[in-house]
């Protein structure tokens, strides 16, 4: 027992020495703290209690930072803005704010906080997203029909959850922390995912408004893209892939495994709007031979002639952004393109999309620019389980595993991704027709 607590104390010390940017919720650092003390189930004993208090304080700060970021993102939006659901894939801001709170209530507070009082018994039905094991739920396409509870009541719900979670972190018996902290952690990463959705969803809603309102007048819509001109070699051979155990990761990022990539190259930069204009000018959207069959059907059904949110006025291309309607910047990375469009563009360019394995190898070796923080990048990889993947038992096992069919993997992160939420092993996934996210591409080619 003595050696166990000494180990725990040493780990706490080393965690303290590392530059833990918890005030910005550096995900790696938060995960590192949990790993530092729970890596081999070495629970702290009495002589490490000072460290435990510090851990509790860190988790409280991390929790509140993420919760406040959600409210910061909602702050420019009126109660009316927060109700709108402009298509079934979009959720109202108010729903995001409530659902992320319900997640903590359902998976942390109800099972683990003694004497916790559920805020409202009807909220589980209203704000459960897709967790079948957590009970019946409201139909997703009808989320925009819910005017009550109103925005103020959701604010009160969030405050109720905040107080209860902070109380649990502060007061939970030390022996329970190995259970409590990992659930807090996944709840925070879950909330960060919804923070990105809040922006993409309100952009879609505002894009339906003929007055093209701005969410944020100062929104920087210029995003660097380097074009397809420069390709860098991919290191042929067998590589270790997936989450390496350092910090937090979702279950779909593991198990770590080996995979082979052949000789090839990958685009150093992202495809730009200027290059997309060439694709349009060269009849890209009207040449069936460039398109996958499902993609061609989509083009015709939807009348696609340009990326999402683009519109042509008096011979000039404009696009709807979170800063309102703006001229297309030819040097920015193209965004709001579907997998179908990305694939057709690659075909037109005589290239291909990288596989997710090629992307990860290139990213880890520092070969590519703008891997993070600009646009999510479509890969040609179907979203499926890594070898040996098993979803955990229970409702949280529904988080990722049950979606592993019919979707495509995107890598990197976007300008809307919260700080600390991106990593080389992250696997985002969407249906191939989706384009309301900040989705773009880089190209790849065979070296032969
Ligand atoms: Fe969710």
Overview features:
448 residues; alpha+beta; paralog of FGE (formylglycine-generating enzyme); 2 domains; 11 helices; binds fe (ii) ion
Q: Can you put this structure into words, describing what you see?
A:
There is one protein chain. The chain has 448 residues and is an alpha+beta fold. Helices cover 38% and strands 11% of the residues. Strand 6 and strand 7 form a beta hairpin. It is globular, with a radius of gyration of 23 Å. Bound molecules: fe (ii) ion (FE2). The site of fe (ii) ion has 4 residues, from helix 7.
**CATH architecture classification name of the largest domain:** Alpha-Beta Complex
Count helical runs.
11
How many domains? The number is 2
* CATH fold title of the largest domain: paralog of FGE (formylglycine-generating enzyme)
Task: Please name the fourth-level CATH homologous superfamily of the largest domain.
Answer: paralog of FGE (formylglycine-generating enzyme)
User: Distance between the terminal alpha carbons, to the nearest Å?
Assistant: 60 Å
* Structure class: alpha+beta
Q: Give the CATH class of the largest domain.
A: Alpha Beta
Q: Which kinds of small molecule does this entry bind, naming each only once?
A: fe (ii) ion
What is the H-and-E element order?
HHHHHHHEEEEHHEEEHHEEEEE
Overall average residue pLDDT: 88
Report the radius of gyration as a whole number of Å: 23 Å
| Percent helix range | 25-40%
- Major sheet: 4 strands, mixed
Q: Which geometry do the CA atoms define? A: globular
Q: What spatial order of strands do you see in the largest sheet? A: 10-9-8-11
Percentage of residues in strands:
5-15%
Low-confidence stretches: 1-47
């Amino acid at each position: 027992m003595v050696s166990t607590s000494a180990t725990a104390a040493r780990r706490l010390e080393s965690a303290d020495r590392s530059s833990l940017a918890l005030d910005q919720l550096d995900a790696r650092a938060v995960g590192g703290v949990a790993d530092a003390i729970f890596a081999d189930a070495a629970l702290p004993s009495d002589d490490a209690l000072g460290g435990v208090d510090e851990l509790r304080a860190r988790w409280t700060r991390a929790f509140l930072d993420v919760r406040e970021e959600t409210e910061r993102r909602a702050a420019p939006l009126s109660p009316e803005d927060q109700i709108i659901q402009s298509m079934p894939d979009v959720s109202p801001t108010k729903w995001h704010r409530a659902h992320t709170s319900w997640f903590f209530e359902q998976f942390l507070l109800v099972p683990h906080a003694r004497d916790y009082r559920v805020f409202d018994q009807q909220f589980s039905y209203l704000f459960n997203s897709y967790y079948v094991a957590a009970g019946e739920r409201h139909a997703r396409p009808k989320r925009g029909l819910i005017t009550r509870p109103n925005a103020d009541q959701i604010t009160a719900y969030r405050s109720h959850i905040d107080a209860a979670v902070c109380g649990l972190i502060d007061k939970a018996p030390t022996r329970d922390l190995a259970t409590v902290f990992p659930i807090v952690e996944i709840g925070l990463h879950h909330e960060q995912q919804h923070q990105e959705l809040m922006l993409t969803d309100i952009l879609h809603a505002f894009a339906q408004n003929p007055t093209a309102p701005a969410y944020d007048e100062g929104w920087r819509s210029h995003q660097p893209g380097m074009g397809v001109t420069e390709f860098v070699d991919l290191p042929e051979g067998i590589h270790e892939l997936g989450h390496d155990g350092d910090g937090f990761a979702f279950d779909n990022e593991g198990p770590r495994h080996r995979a082979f990539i052949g000789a090839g190259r990958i685009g150093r930069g992202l495809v730009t709007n200027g290059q997309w204009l060439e694709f349009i000018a060269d009849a890209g959207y009207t040449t069936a031979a460039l398109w996958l069959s499902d993609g061609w059907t989509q083009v015709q059904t939807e009348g696609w002639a340009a990326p999402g949110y683009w519109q042509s006025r008096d011979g000039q291309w404009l696009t709807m952004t979170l800063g309102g309607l703006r001229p297309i910047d030819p040097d920015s990375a193209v965004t709001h393109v579907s997998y179908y469009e990305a694939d057709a563009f690659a075909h037109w360019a005589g290239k291909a999309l990288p596989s997710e394995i090629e992307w990860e190898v290139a990213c880890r070796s520092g070969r590519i620019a703008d891997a993070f923080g600009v646009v999510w990048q479509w890969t040609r990889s179907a979203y499926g389980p890594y070898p040996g993947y098993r979803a955990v038992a229970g409702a949280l096992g529904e988080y990722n595993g049950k979606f592993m069919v019919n979707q495509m993997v995107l890598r990197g992160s976007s300008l809307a991704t919260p700080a600390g939420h991106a990593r080389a092993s992250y696997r985002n996934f969407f249906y191939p027709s989706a384009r309301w996210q900040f989705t773009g591409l880089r190209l790849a080619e065979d070296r032969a």
